[in-house]
Amino acid sequence: AAKERGKGRHAVYDARLEQDQAADAQLGAELRQALDNGDFTLVYQPIVSLPDGKWTSLETLVRWQHPERGFVGPDVFIPIAERTGLIVPLGDWILRTALRQAAEWQDVFGSGAPAEIGVNVSARQLREPGFAADVRAALADSGFDPEKLVVEVTETAVFDGGVALDTLQNLVTLGVKVALDDFGTGHSSLGLLRTCPADTLKVDKSFVDGIGGRSEEAVIATAMIQITNGLHLQAIAEGVETAEQAETLYRLGYRFAQGYHFSRPLTPAQVGERLEAARVLAV
Ligand code: C2E
Ligand code: MG
Ligand code: MG
Ligand code: MG
Question: Where in the numbering of this chain does the EAL domain appear (predicted)?
Fold first, then answer.
């Protein structure tokens, strides 16, 4: 009977898997279509210095407006784009569009433009043999300064092994900066910090959420700022939603933060308006 049940369970599992694969294939085809149709857009979320809230950098985040399903979040479609390989052309489009946009803000606003632009790069992209060369070509085409590009990668993507580390090293040689994203949530060890050429740790929102009081998260957030300071890395606290969290982070030693408390992700037009308003104030 156990065997029967086991069989049944497998049948259900297989059916689900097939269904998932079918759904994946369907969405994968739609992603391809979306890239051709120009249905992806980019928004930019400021990273600010503490305590003044001044913009130091903008993180590029991709958005998909599906013709029938409406808005589909990157948490849903990026994993599918990774599995289907579409992340490679999509990622190239994201990088080139972000660099072109950042170069334009640089031209228009000069030193009033944020110093850096961040672009998320997935594990699949890091494993592409020609990835560093593609980044170099995209930088050259945009005329944007490599030192002002920050590539955000997760520790899990880097932990994958030698190829990813070699790619990161090649990027660093170009002058590009590396940030470890969602730090503390992956399955890596702190030893990664010795081998990974990262400049910045983005401390995950889950640690920021529980930062008030004597929570475990507060203890971890404190340890993380000590590690980053000791290793001469920069720490950015992610997902800061309240003034109280921002104050606590500052007290713990954090000097950079990102989150809805400071700004939601903004459209290019909104970024332009804010930069324009700041320029008018500065005159
Ligand atoms: P991430 O790189 O860690 O990006 C931060 C996410 O947290 C963004 O979600 C942002 O909108 C959200 N966020 C920022 N501040 C707050 C806050 O105060 N509260 C809350 N609740 N959320 C906040 P988003 O845009 O939905 O992106 C989700 C994830 O999808 C990203 O996490 C990243 O892993 C991936 N992703 C987004 N854009 C790209 C991209 O262009 N390429 C790749 N490969 N992955 C991307
Ligand atoms: Mg990121
Ligand atoms: Mg993050
Ligand atoms: Mg995240």
Answer: 24-279
